[in-house]
Amino acid sequence: MEAxxxxxxxxxxxxxxxxxxxxxxxxxSTPCSPSRYPEARMSSSPPxxxxxxxxxxxxRISTRIKxxxxxSDDMEAADALKPTVALKKSASDMVNEHREHLQAEKAxxxxxxxxxxxxxxxxxxxxxxxxEESHLGIEEKVQAQENPYTGLSYDEYRDYKREQKMADNKxxxxxxxxxxxxxxxxxxxxxxxxxxxxxxxxxHEEDVKMAVKGELCVGFMGSEDSADKEFAEYIRAKGWRSTxxxxxxxxxxxxxxxxxxxxxxxxxxxxxxxxxxxxxxxNTQIKEMLCLAKPVSSGPAASVNAxxxxxxGHTAKKERVEDRSLSTVLIEDGDFPEEPDWLLVGRTAITxxxxxxxxxxxxxxxxxxxxxxxxxxxxxxxxxxFSTKRSGEIGRLPMEWAKCLTPxxxxxxxxxxxxxxxxxxxxxxxxxxxxxxxxxxxxxVLTEDDKSSWRLDASPNIxxxxxxxxxxxxxxKIKPFQKAEFTPEExxxxxxxxxxxxxxxxxxxVLPMVKRxxxxxxxxxxxxxxxxxxxxxxxxxxGAAEVYNLxxxxxxxxxxxxxxxxxxxxxxxxxxxxxxxxxxxAAETLHPCWAAFHICDERASAIYxxxxxxxxxxxxxxxxxxxxGGILADAMGLGKTVMTIALILARTGRGSPEDxxxxxxxxxxxxxxxxERRNSEKKVRSKVRGGTxxxxxxxxxxxxxxxxxxxxxxxxxxxxxxxxxxxxNDPEVIAEPDIVLTTYGVLTAAYKIDGEYSIFHxxxxxRVVLDEAHTxxxxxxxxxxxxxxxxHVEPWCNWAWWSKLIQKPYENGDHRGLKLIKAILRxxxxxxxxxxxxxxxxxxxxLPPTDIQVIxxxxxxxxxxxxxxxxxxxxxxxxxxxxxxKVLHNYANILELLLRLRQCCNHPFxxxxxxxxxxxxxxxxxARRFLETNPDSATSNQRxxxxxxxxxxxxxxxxxxxxxxxxxxxxxxxxxxxxxxHRMCRxxxxxxxxxxxxxxxxxxxxxLKKNELITCPSENRFRVDIxxxxxxxxxxxxxxxxxxxxxQSGEKCIVFSQWTSFMDLLEIPLKRRGIGFLRFDGKLxxxxxxxxxxxxxxxSENMVLLMSLKAGGVGLxxxxxxNVFLMDPWWNPAVEEQAxxxxxxxxxxxxxxxxRFIVKDTVEERMQQVQARKQRMIAGALTDEEVRSxxxxxxxxxxx
Amino acid sequence: xxxxxLPRRIIKETQRLLSEPAPGIxxxxxxxNMRYFNVMILGPTQSPYEGGVFKLELxxxxxxxxxxxxxxxxxxxxxxxxxxxxxxxxxxxxxxWSPALQIRTVLLSIQALLSAPNPDDPLSxxxxxxxxxxxxxxxxxxxxWTRLYASGV
Lengths: 1200, 153
Hints:
The structure holds 2 protein chains of 2 kinds. Chain A is an alpha/beta fold. Among the domains of chain A are: 44-181, Four Helix Bundle (Hemerythrin (Met), subunit A) (Up-down Bundle), CATH 1.20.120; 331-478 and 588-625, no CATH class; 509-534 and 847-913 and 1026-1200, Rossmann fold (3-Layer(aba) Sandwich); 923-1020, Zinc/RING finger domain, C3HC4 (zinc finger) (Herpes Virus-1), CATH 3.30.40. Chain A contains 51 helices and 29 strands. A 6-stranded antiparallel β-barrel of chain A has the order 1-4-3-2-5-6. In chain A, strands 19-29-28-25-27-26 form a 6-stranded parallel β-sheet, with helices on both faces. In chain A, a hairpin with a 6-residue loop joins β22 and β23 (1007-1009). In chain A, α6 packs antiparallel against α10 (154-177). In chain A, 44% of the residues are buried. By secondary structure, chain B is of the alpha+beta class. Chain B has a 4-stranded antiparallel β-sheet. In chain B, α3 crosses α4. The interface between A and B is medium-sized, with 24 and 21 residues. Chain A: Its main location: nucleus. Chain A: Pfam families: Helicase_C, HIRAN, SNF2-rel_dom, zf-C3HC4. Chain A: Keywords: ATP-binding, DNA damage, DNA repair, Helicase, Hydrolase, Metal-binding, Nucleotide-binding, Nucleus, Zinc, Zinc-finger. Chain A: One of its GO terms (cellular component) is nucleus.
């Protein structure tokens, strides 16, 4: 466009601008200094940006203002503020001082919104007043005063509004005071003649700007006269002439001063300073002035001089600024130059909406985008506006762009340059403006040498899964040249070829476990083992029946046993997943969560963006960073231990800083390990390289040790057990052997003491094996999450994604969460069961069949009477609880009632032992023995208890006082008396000792030996003399029959019971009938356990093993026996299942016969029904409330 | 999660602590972790800590009661056996722990420790030195600290 310069030639008018020229007018410290101006404009200038109701309210307000404008009454203009004020007051009523904080917050928000609205209101009013009264100095202040709004609390704001109103009134007065100033009035009139100009002064500014740039369309403005006036307006709008006007007032209207001073006192003038770099601001000014200088130079000499003197006064600044400012001026409609530091990402058209009216925009004109700054509350509105140099705000960007660009631009790593490509000649509100935007990314993002992962804080919400850079690429339609294998969209829409076709009913069957744990009384669950998930549920969870078509890998020659084909497959699978993908291949393979993008600028390399975390980098994210290792979740009895040993032997290695540790194996995780691993990446530097760390439950420690010993060629690997008192604290020492065995307890303890500096953290492990998890079996998804974290499974180790796509749906009972878990686990988990088939359809493992039968026992008459009496007594109690509505509060009591009934089914003696107090004939003997042994004992040098004390204790026992065990705080079970005459549970005492045979008395710290303990009363655990009065219960009778039959056939038997006291009872008839037996229960020390198991396996003297399910449930290999007797039903059949699995596993050569004993017409039978019912209920997800009422129902069933 | 396997003993102890609190001691479990207790101990009378309300935290480790609870003063206190991090030098919290001890007894012991500082087995060397060289002055400091940090909450 040809530059036409229109020069205002009226010297008189230019003269009025002269004061501007004084250099001190640029001082930013002047109360109305221009430095404050730009932001003032931002919040106040657009009269039409009434928040949310742009079209309706905006239009209405403007109309109203227009009318008021025509009435030209300042008072009314001020009145226009009133609606806002009133609104505010109603809001303030709401803010009842005693109300909750929340409400206050809400009110604040409202107030905040109102700030915006009233801001624009005031804007309109001011726009109007400006024209009316020309009291520019004060106007400026009003403008400036608006800024503090955003930072004000509601109350402050309200106060401010009052002052504001007062100030407005003053303005009005002041305005009328200077109405007589000639020239301004004249302009006023001239403007009112032009109705289509609208109330916004912006129009004028723009026009002036046009005039300056020489693009003025003369026809539009009509006359140079008005253009001249616009010019004045423009200068004022630019901010620096406000001071000029002050000076003007000083010289012309003296009465003005007090008012201004008054305003200044209202406190907002200096308090509301905008955070604006004064230098930049003055740069702008100079720039503007330079523009102005040109036209003016051909004007009257006075003004030229004035201008040039001003310019001279700022030469230094000007020169510095010139390149930039001049270039900006030049490109106002030109091309955006290529800048070395900014790389072009892409260009696209954006359709903005106008928020201004009038003729403001030229095609190809550059628009500037104004982003909300750091203020969080301001951010919330999130509106991104654009403006032009000459006309101020034009419109706003669509929200999708605003949302995506704001964080990007605020990170100052991205910038946007924008021009208008198409807009209506004369803008109305909410018209479409087509912009063409170029996006640049800063070089630093792409060239930083370090691992330069660049992550934008997309939103204050860390759970956010929306990432601006990705959104930008999307909006720019930049397609990744290499797509991520996993994308959130696919997961969201679940279109992914993940195998999600799962039977919903099946999938849901594990849900109630979670529900139940959320119940308020979780610790009173019948038994925590109940939370064990059954094998079949696990199958459902991970889908086991699948046929794995895996290669087989020959085990190393150091493995001293043969592997079955499926075990060789597992070996192959584990070593492959340990390697990750082929290392070379992996290095070239893009990590599946990352997508690769090319941006427009050819100088830039590819940019990789993580679809899940939003991280961006230029470093190739290779698949090597992916999860290595996996979960070997084969069903019990398939030989996981052997497979793992084969793996360790096949791939012995050392941890190294480059080759980060890999993991394999079981279904466990603990958060310590998670940390350990994370740590091992961070702090690999000074670590000792270790071998394989195997973490397992204490019960399996020796088994691991044994199996390592038996299955590996002697000397092929070194093993160290890091457990017990002899463990070293030197990382060098535990890094030395190839294999370190430890327990979760040791690990936990180490972590608790030393945190991330524990001995385990000081070693860079080559491999970590976690055996026997208790996590998946409790089926808590969060535990699974930590497992995935441990394995570094992306993107699932990102909490936001996990929570969004799995945790929450799962908790809400949406099966899709579970389906997704399955899909995630599938590639990570190898799970076969005994029923799995190989590719030819043959079972992978041929185990002898199991034969499970329920043996129904019928109580004898006497037994039945006893049971009946007990039942009736219990029922009375239960009914009381029901009547009081306190069943669930008395859950523990009720369980105790049930416990007695169940025990009574095993043998009435079990209940009698807790029943009525009975004289113990042999108590005197006990006392005598006690008093005799004490002086002779090895600890006789220690302080002996006084005779009186001992007698008191014995008397207590005689009276049947059952004292509370000082350790478990329960009434002592199998109590012992110490030589120091303290009484406690045997198990509690022994477990408090560090060594099995010797330890301190917990009460008096006297040294005790195990053999000094007096069982109290050892033969009198039952309050009847069971030996003398021995009578078999129907169940015991049945058992004995079975045992004798089996033993004759030469097979070994395992008898499981939940109660050691029942085993005590069983010992009597076994001894009497000469049946050799061994016992394995929780009281045995680790060493003892090993010995017992060895003896049972290797000798045929003792064909029966009495085993407590608790002790024998996990990991043990009991294949020497082929007969299982489950003496009492468990609340959770899965526990029984586990027990059976100990016997029915690899190595078992015979048919496994399982006999479950149930006494007819008793609580045992009903327990079976409850279990069945539970299984049914499990099919539907229940709320906590439903679970509670279901529990009540169950209890009622039991007492029917 | 932390609460699902809470041993009966901890439940019992908690119930008792709440139903029959020891004089001058209050201990209540945190809502989200039943093994974590917020504890307040009143400074024993006739000690420099008289009139003070001392906040402590107490945590029952997984091994509890086979391992001692972890206890720490949260309120600043001038005491030779308590360091500036609030850690307490008390044998029953270390090697002399016995499973027969309970939260209550531990807290009573700590309360007793306030009554009877033991500068011969110090945790805070400086304070202990102070205590030994000029007990009156040290006691004054302790009183001052009590007034400064432990008066009111």
